[in-house]
Each structure stands twice: as C-alpha cells, then as structure tokens.
Amino acid sequence: MQTTWKGTISFGLVSIPVHLYSATQEHDVPLHQVHAKDGGRVRMKRYCEQEEKEVPYAEIAKGYESPDGRTVTLSDEDLADLPLPSKKIIDVLAFVDEGEIDPLMFSKAYYVGVADKAAAKPYALLRDALTESGQIAVTKIALRTRESPAVLRVHDNTLVLQTCIWPDEVRPVAGIAPEGDVTVRPQELKMARSLMDTLSEDFDLAQLHDDYQQALQQVITARLDGVEVPHEEEPGEAPDNVIDLMEALRSSLKQAKGGRGAEGAGAGEAGAEEEPAPRKRAPARKTAPKAGPKSSEKSSEKTAEKAAAKAAAKTSGTGATRSPAAKRATTRKSSAPRKAS
Q: Model-level pTM greater than 0.90?
C-alpha cells in the first residue's frame, strides 16, 4: 500500500512517528473523451497563452490572481516551505465523544500505521485509550495544499485519521425543511416504525453492489461484441403527491413483508393498524323487558283457567248452567294425571 503522508502524532509529550495510507478506493469504469464523429481520442493540452504554444508538465506551477488583475506564481518549493506548525505533525487538541462531531463534516479516511518498531507501544497506548474511553481525538493536519481539522478513531484495532471540513464550510440549512408546523399522528409514526423494522431485517451492508457500474460494463461489452445493447424497462412514474399517508405506509409495509416472506406479516400489520375509538355505553333502560309471545300466551291461559274455576265454584251449588270456559277448565283438571301417593 502506497504511503500518502509521513509525520508524527503529537500526544502531549509523546511523539508517535506514523505513515498515512488511503483507506478507501473507488471502483469506476475508466472512460475518456473521444470525438463522437469518428471516435478519435480527444486530449487536453497545456497551452501557454503568452507564448501561444504547448508547455510540458514540468514547467507548470500554481498561480493566484488578485482582484486587481495581478498574478502571483507559487512553486512547489514555496508550498513545501510554508510556515505551518501542522505541516508534518498531527497535533492532538482534545478528546470528545464521537457524537459531538456531525458526520456531515467527515471527509476522506486514512489508515494510520507506525513508521518504526519504537512507535508500536505509544501507538497501542493511544489506540487502547480511545477504545476504553469511547472517545475520538480532535486534531489538525496539513495534507498537500490544505490544512484540515481531523479526528483519530479506532477501526478494527487500527487507528484511522479522518479529515474534516471546517465548521464554517458547512452551508446553513435555512429554508430547506418544510416550513410551518406539520402534525404527525401517533398511528402514522407507529406504522413508519414498523416499516423501518421490516426493511432492516437481515440487512447486510456488505451485500450492496454498484448497479450503475455493472450496467455500464454490460453496455461496453455489448458494443465490443457487436450485439444489441441491453435496455432496462422504464420504471413507472412515481406519484407526485401522497393523498393518504396512512394508506401509503400500509401498502409499503405489505410490499416489504411480501419481499421478505409472508410469515408473521399478519401479526406485524395488525399491531400497526389504527386504534379503534372506544365504544359508548348505551344508557340503561328503566322499563322491564317485554315478555315474548309464548310467555304472554301462557299467562293468558292461566288467568282464564282461574277465572273459570271461580265461576264454577259459585254456580255449582245453585245448579246454574256452567259456562264454556268453566267446562274447559274442569275437563283440563280431570284429564291431568294424578300424582302417586
């Protein structure tokens, strides 16, 4: 691995000679400019306006043009001899919790390695102190033509230096977020959290890949082989306005669960549904419930029997003719089975 920077970490009175190595690399398909008409290679030439001719790279320096039009030329020696304390030193300024640095400020990452065997022990001391405290070290470093704030942290038992931008280089966010108060219902928040949990199940960042580079390579291969270039189906138009947020969340949750298997889908969705409103109790009735047709009919028959019995008792001694109701009551009594003594 090629060394990017050589210097020393200054940790109080402790000095740690270190080398920096680029921790990341981007995998891009190399493309260059060509003439669309005939495919001829288009090259950018370094052209001097004063002499009206091309100049070699070795004769090129950096320059600054002042507001009044004057130009100052700066050579590599001028830039190398800048009176800068952080030119070859990573000066540890403070130790803070990692949450105090906004990730928006993070830039490029470098692995920090020891320059010699004598630096192994102080290196391990700083690494273990950061690991035990759970903090990161705030530093400053000059890389190439720029001084930047940076942080030292631990990754896989190795110190990592991550450069940052200056706080005043972070643009303000005024006017970006929606203005005014936006009310989010508890049911919508609950459904959104359920969708987040479903999408996060069995997620592995290492399984992600660059679809753009893969598709570009397929097009290049097809052109080299002289075959038809593959085309992706046009995606449907996304809705420009969400009418029912709750319904959109519910449909998203169903789609996410469908892609990960239907097992447990019902239980998760049921928990995220809107809570039903409590039912109102019906007022108690003061009147007794009316009797049904059968009970009413039985009570009428008993009343008629009693009335017929009384009438029969009154007329039995005088020999008067009994009424039809009394006759029916007597017949029913006589036909009823007697209890055994």
A: no
